[in-house]
Design a protein that fits this description.
Elements (H helix, E strand, L loop, with lengths): L1 H13 L4 E2 L2 E2 L7 H4 L52 E5 L5 H13 L5 E6 L9 H7 L2 E5 L16 E2 L8 E2 H13 L7 E5 L4 E3 L3 H9 L8 E5 L11 H11 L1 H7 L5 E9 H18 L9 H10 L7 E4 L6 E3 L6 H5 L34 E3 L5 H11 L7
Parallel strand pairs: 3-4, 3-8, 4-5, 10-12, 13-14
Antiparallel strand pairs: 1-2, 6-7, 8-11, 9-14, 10-11
Helix pairs in contact: 5-9, 7-8, 7-10, 9-10
Length: about 400
């Protein structure tokens, strides 16, 4: 698994530099004649129309039928211990080096967050060098997971079907993590707020919960669930072969037709009060039981999230924040072949700072108001050459809880 991850990182880095087919393919330190072709301020800032980021039905979402959580196991170390009433940031953090922990945990602590960070990692004897000491120093609570994916084909480890707990059915890691998030959420108070985040490609510039309170004037409560849209119009269910394919291949062409114009919602960043997280994870897992999408060649959780929200199967308290105007700035689709071929981007690859101009003088990523630093930045690895030095510096030290 580690070899695969290193190969993917190397491939991503290679894809961002040099020339390909006569075109400069890196937005980082592009030649001046290339930058001269870029617009002074790119178009299409602002959210998708409301009609393209709300359910296609007026039927109110029903509460999920309860289910028994999967076994979570014992924490990997006795201290620090979970705090029942704490806010929680959680994610799946399997087989990463210390750099990835510093990028996620280090930037989160440095941003001033003092709540719980409760992760799913490999067991202590499998943690890579220096990781246990770093995680414990950073106030991380960890639970172990050893998935057995040896019987599954495919290149993306997150989409492999794996054995993972005795008595539990084999599932893709993309789904297993939701079963464990449900188990984690059940150990906390209904007063706790949760932020569930992709681990490898998220870093923090501010406390995400403090930003929610600042924006809304209060904490999230009850069934309030915040989900995050990717960039409009680059990412719509109908023009994304992944999300469109997941919906079409699992629920059918008629459902794809209904949802094709909707914004793509990200399954790697969402936030809610503890009851909302319990309800969402339960609803997603119940849908997995009902439709068994991974046996139809649809192994991703993102298809489930988009289908459940847009078909009105989540509570009315679920709301969408858009890229560049919310707690999470999901930047991945700001550069890519599909929007480029559709004429949304110049023929050369671009970057966040020089083309989109949403980084300030200190390097922080900004919301589209060009002033506010985004609390969380997701999918930053799509611009790895641009961001690696900044993320390394930002996560350089730890403020423990």
């Amino acid at each position: 698994m580690q070899t695969l991850q290193l190969l993917l990182v190397a491939t991503a880095a290679t894809a961002q530099r040099g020339w390909r087919n006569g075109n400069w393919i890196s937005g980082f330190r592009a030649p001046e004649d290339v930058k001269a072709q870029w617009a002074a301020r790119p178009p299409m800032f602002g959210p998708a129309p409301l009609a393209n980021r709300r359910p296609v039905t007026d039927a109110p979402g029903q509460l999920a039928k309860p289910r028994t959580p999967a076994p979570l196991g014992e924490p990997l170390w006795p201290f620090p211990a979970q705090r029942y009433d704490a806010d929680v940031v959680t994610g799946l953090a399997l087989n990463y080096r210390e750099f990835s922990h510093r990028a996620f945990v280090g930037t989160l602590r440095r941003a001033g967050y003092t709540g719980d960070i409760t992760l799913i990692t490999e067991p202590r004897n499998r943690l890579q060098r220096g990781c246990e000491a770093y995680l414990r120093k950073s106030g991380v609570v960890a639970y172990g997971l050893v998935p057995d994916c040896s019987a599954s084909s495919g290149g993306n480890i997150k989409h492999k079907t794996c054995k993972w707990r005795d008595g539990q059915p084999p599932l893709p890691l993309a789904i297993i993590r939701h079963a464990l998030y449900l188990a984690i959420a059940k150990t906390y108070s209904p007063r706790s707020m949760f932020y569930v985040a992709d681990y490898r490609d998220t870093f923090f510039q501010a406390d995400p919960f403090a930003r929610v309170v600042e924006r809304r004037g209060r904490r999230l409560e009850g069934l309030e669930l915040l989900v995050v849209a990717e960039h409009w119009p680059f990412k719509q269910i109908g023009n994304c072969p992944f999300n469109g394919g997941w919906v079409r291949n699992c629920w059918g062409r008629s459902e794809w037709d209904r949802l094709r114009n909707q914004s793509v919602l990200c399954s790697g960043s969402y936030m809610g009060a503890q009851p909302a997280i319990v309800n969402f994870e339960t609803r997603l897992l119940n849908e997995v039981d009902a439709h068994d999408c991974h046996h139809k060649g649809v192994p991703s959780d993102q298809g489930y999230l988009n289908y459940l929200f847009y078909t009105g199967n989540l509570p009315a308290e679920t709301f969408v924040e858009t890229r560049g105007d919310g707690v999470v700035n999901t930047v991945g689709s700001l550069d890519g072949s599909r929007p480029r071929h559709a004429g949304y981007l110049p023929p050369t690859h671009v970057n966040i700072g020089e083309y989109w101009k949403i980084r300030d003088a200190a390097g922080y990523v900004l919301e589209d108001d060009m002033t506010t630093r985004s609390a969380a930045v997701h999918q930053w690895d799509r611009f790895g050459i641009e961001f690696n030095p900044f993320v390394s510096q930002l996560g350089r030290d730890v403020r423990t809880r």
